[in-house]
Amino acid sequence: MKDLMQRRGANLERMRDLDASFGYPSKGYKKIHVAGTNGKGSVTTKIASALTQLGYKTGLYTSPHIYSFQERIQVDGVPISVEETSLLLSKIMEISREATFFEVVTMLAFLHFQNKKVQFAVIETGLGGIFDPTNVITPELSIITSISYDHMAVLGGTLDEIAENKGGIIKPNVGVVLSHRATLEPIFKKAFQEKAPVYILPPTEDWMEENTEIAKKAISILFPRAPQALDFSALPPCRFEVLEKEGLTFVFDIAHNQDGLKNLFSKLEKTFPERPLFVIFGMSQDKDLSFAVTFLKSHSKEIYPFDIENPRIVRKEDLQTLFDTPSTSLEEFLAKAREENGIVVVTGSAYIMKEAKEQLLNASNLELALN
Q1: Which CATH number covers residue 295?
Q2: Each residue's pLDDT tens digit, 248-276
Q3: CA 264, CA 208: separation in Å to the nearest integer?
Q4: Which of 38, 208, 265, 350 has the smallest number of Cβ neighbours within 10 A?
């Protein structure tokens, strides 16, 4: 896997050089490093919230964003400002114009955390682990939330290859928390090589409960005497986010791969038994669209293809062909969902969420759906 990634130009040298150029802003505060196919955004958010509750000034670095770029970098729940972003970006670009997008944004986070004098930072990997720009850090604790199929063109086509890549965040003598979904041989092999203590969480029926248990375990390892009353309910936007509007029930969730969609629909069927699922779906072109089409056809009452002005997103017309769905208006789709007491599920990609919310919660659309 390492050879494969290096042949594709992946390495950490440029990120290390960039870090050194600024005097190592990745250092000077304690860090928790989180990788995984699914769940890492929720886990980082929950841990950051708990650390803030414990009285620590806490940075959070996560991706992608839903509403604005500034969501990716926060301190105690407050996003970096547009002005701070602009100032720091100009400094980074003065040093390096060859850095990749994720290298630049990662350095932006490090510099912001340094400027704000955080005591802890919870850092989510962007892609994989071993050559992710965040992997220049040495954390207090590493976490791998899950291993499943996603980004196979980059991370490898087997679960072992994906696990080897994500296991690259494991550091010498630094503990690693694993969900049962991440207990693959390459992870254990890496932990053994690095003499890293391993903490394995038992299976749970609900993936959201599992993310909470991972966050609780991380805090209990770092703070054995932490109060039991800490609130771990914090979540990023659009993680099984349920909204009621004018008699319609909406669920927004960024599930975009096989395990994500399976987990989402399992929870939908348990949470809303006997209610039909009306799915609004858009997806990036680099995802497993074939699986998504087959899966959604068998788990949805009706499907409304959705796209946005983003070249990464599959065109609505192409989705209509794949799903073999007749052309209908959003208003007609919502009206039928309300008539049948259905749940309107918006899923497939983080990139569609902002525009989908704006359209779906727009009063005029809902008024038409009610008539």
Answers
A1: 3.90.190.20
A2: 999 999 998 898 999 999 999 999 999 99
A3: 10
A4: 208
